[in-house]
Task: structure prediction
Amino acid sequence: MQSTKMIEIYNKLLEKLGEQKWWPAETPFEVVVGAILTQRTKWENVETAIHNLKEHNLLDPDALAKVDREKLESLVKCTGFYKQKAERLQIASGYFAENRLISQMLIGDLRNELFSLKGIGKETADSIILYALNRPKFVIDAYTVRICNCLGVSGGYDRLQERFESELPQDITLFKEFHALIVKYGKEFCNKHKCDECVLLS
DNA sequence: CACCAGGTTGACC
DNA sequence: GGTCAACATGGT
Result:
């Protein structure tokens, strides 16, 4: 009974919103860049910044690691927190430029390596693992916590992630789609309706 | 004008 | 362990 709760939520979201097909990006490294830039920012601003980077041929680990800091700051300014994001993009770029064969690492080890990079916390690391590296890790974001708690599934990041990963089939496509649906639902409904009007409750 | 957006960090208790 | 301000731009 409890073991099907997550699947029920997923089916309701899918039925209501349709497939999301995340993450929108042309390359894995573009996912890494987007994951850092999207922190506390609207996705439209990230698209603008990524467009700027592409225009300057900077969507590449080596190129991004070497580019002038002030130039990078100006290109990502539209995403906010632009000074620290520029720094953190270059830190991550240096890591991925030096580590192009990380696909056989254990997920836990990989996650800890990503945590050691300034600016990459749980959600960003897990987004990179799932959407850039195509490995099974369920991404929890603020909407996930809000919606789950609203639906009577309590817990913070770690506890909820443990539940999603243990109660769901280890299906990468499902993990990607489910998180995308949660974010889509959160943006569309969480701020415009009260929790007791949540269409997922019934 | 106040508030929020696909978080993370470092300081403090 | 948890809580809190700081980080900064762009849209409603």
About this structure: Chain A has a mean pLDDT of 94. Residues 22, 34-36, 38-43, 45-46, 80-81, 84, 88, 118-124, 127, 139, 141-143, 179-180, 182-184, 186-187, 191 of chain A lie near DNA strand B (CB under 10 Å from a C1').
